[in-house]
Amino acid sequence: MEPLSIILMIIYIIVGVSGVTLIKLGSLPAATTIFTVPLVNYAVSWQTIFGIACYGLSFILYIILIAKLDLSFLTPVVTAFNYLLIMAIAFIVFGEQFTPIKIIGCSLIIIGVLMVVINKPA
Predict the structure, then answer these.
(1) Total-model pTM
(2) What are the distances in angstroms from CA 74 to CA 19, 94, 102?
């Protein structure tokens, strides 16, 4: 795999996780509301706007990545890293709980990603 693909994968993961985190931060009561979406009564803040922008950028990066890499390699790897980082942020930033089942699930994700990476043809 070429270095540019690895760099794009890392940027994709960081930008995607940042987007989800910002959207969550923007939905908290402490966030300053810019406007409200009437049909669903959702208060939109600056964090929400930046989160959506990050999420959009991650989508563009994903399109570039699926053109460069095997989908059967890319999707499990980036999805696993996204999931693990989001769980860590949920614990650290939002105070969500880590249960034994979540820890077992994270361990299985790591094992699965290692299996995908080890079996990837050169």
Answers:
(1) 0.86
(2) 19, 28, 23
